[in-house]
Amino acid sequence: MFRMRQKRIKDWLVIMLIMGLIVAVYLTTYTMNKATIVQGDYPLQNSIDANTGVMKYQPAVIKVEENVTRKILHRVLRGIKAADEYLLKRYKPNRIDQDTLASAYNRDMKYDMLEATLLRVLFTGEPLKIGVIGGSISEGKVLAGDQYIYYNILASYLQLMMNRTVEIHSGIVAATDSAYYSYCINNHINLQEVDVVFWELAVNDHVVGLRPYPQEELTRYILQQPSKPQLMYINFINAINLWHRRCVTNERIGSRLLSQHYKIPSINLSNATCRDIRKGFSHYLSAYDYYHPSRRAHHMVALFIVTLFRDLLLNIVHNLLQNPTNQLQYLEKINNVTRASNTIPAPLFDSTRINYPHCWSSLANTPTQLQPIYIDGWTLTENYVDEEPSTTIKETVGFLNKTAWSCKKANKDIVFMLNIDRYGDFLATVSIATIGCPVCGKGRISIDNELEISRVINTHWGWTRIMTHYVSHFVTSGQKTLRIHSLNNKPLTILAIMVAYDMKTTLADLDMKMVEQDTADEESIESQQSIQVDEDEMSQHGEMEDGLLESQQGVVDEENTGQESEQESTATLDPEILEKVSISETHLDLDKQESVLDTEENQETVLEQEENQ
Asked: Is position 1 within any domain?
């Protein structure tokens, strides 16, 4: 009996010991330190230098506070579990499997900066701010509702998983491309206020045949921002490629190479759906207008982005639930990411012509308006629409909210004043943005009325879009006047004037160009002088022949003193002598007349061509 009681006591002690170990493990696992952000990678209050106007930033510093429970991480896990239920329901109807997800984005990229951003948002309670630059696809054309756009779908999933507010900062301008944004991105979105930037311009760059240089210029500018927003490429697919069963987009020559070079996350709808595209089963990707992506395509892109964010959130939870040694290593890695300077690799496509861009734009709700100093026949029109129904631009994508300076008559001028600050010895690049359309006309752009810095632009295009025209790479600093002269009776519309510094051209290059121009002018003067010398020699030769003629005429007069006056006149009009004289005297005059006639014919030909066009 005593032994039985002793055995029971031992069993109870063992059970109590086991229960104590379980409680200790539970407390160790679920009660741990909380990571908080002391100062985020965002503008501090009163952090603008009054002298320079430069906004200062302080890197994110994450520290560990003791004896704080991990309620936030538990909430994230519950949110991910709830979101997974929705995701699993959406994967199958949208033909998404593991192979599709694997080809939709590159999992080998570095997402440290995005992970640090999510960590800061989780433990500070601040909203996640997503900026979007794109065209009519991001505008939600033909979707009949903003709730069907990919970034709004993404926001709903992220709010469910993170229990944090998600803000969308729209910098969308329909019918535009990377060339315009590489100059004017600051006119449409404040990069210092966003955590993530979505670049959705792959289709627009592809349909206009734009090479990847502007995309790299824009990429480098965003990566150099002190606030370090995480850039992401969002690559939809062109509907024309669906008709031809091709998976080729600008992603093949732009986003893919740039993503690998700069370690930028890239979402690719073309790769994910290439199997269906080649089989001809891709009708579900195109909307009813056969130009824009469908609701289903938007939902698929949103699911790809959600899956990426979900993996990053799980990685955060996993690392913060490890032992204290792994926690400290993980937090130190995040701190190093936020402290690191904005060092970026060398340009992949040697794109260094757009640095420190500035844009004067007439688009609505932009900080720097486009104001002329002289107007003749130009008007500022809101919601630009042509008068003739057949040439309306209002019916075209995204031009309901455009404001622009426009002219419809030939030989009309508008002049703008530009103040270009000096940046070292580098010269400025000047470009302009216009509206291109099937009925749009031509214009001549000149700076300070110099023919050397002028260019004729043609705004005719197959559909309505924003076009960027380069004017000159050799513009010095100072106050400049930019004159736009219309050349025909067709619409000419100006949206923006852009200036940036060209790191490939300096004052030395300009001096060399001027020396070359002076050399060419000297050679032209020398050639003209040689022509003049030839003319003098020919005239002297003509005078000698005239003297010979007079002497011969005197001899004839002396020999025929007694002859009649009619014979004397016949002798003075000897045809052989007259032929020599006519050749020597009229040779140069004929050359001059032919050159004048050629010049006049060339001018008339140019005028006829311009009138016909």
From this structure: no
